[in-house]
Amino acid sequence: MVTKMQQEVTVQQIMSQIANVKKDMIILEKRGFSALRAENEKTNVELHRLKQQIMDEVIKVRTDAKLDFNLEKSRVKELYSLNERKLLEMRTEMVALHAQQDRAVTQTDRKIDTEVAGLKTMLESHKLDNIKYLAGTVFTCLTVALGFYRLWI
Question: Which ranges form a coiled coil (predicted)?
């Protein structure tokens, strides 16, 4: 049996202990919340850092790709101009060879024409010589025949 006074004191002690426990719980909650907030902040900072690293890497990859693209583009332009120069040289060489071939064909045609003209001249000359010899032979035979005819008549 407890007196009313002791009971009130005990209730007051219990209430004070409950209040202390509540304060401790609030403090613990605040600490837990602070720890969670600090952890959240740390995670946000880490996330921001990782995001920045990824952006830096993306920019680096883009820059490298643009550089590679520009290098390849300039290499292709150089190859194109080199091929154009080679093509121009080949065209010039072909024109020169064609002109040389035309000169050779023209010279050959002239030589053939000269040879044909010479052969025609020689043929005419031999024809005239044959006609002379034939005429001489005919006249000689006629002279001999007339000579025999005269001798027998």
Answer: 11-53
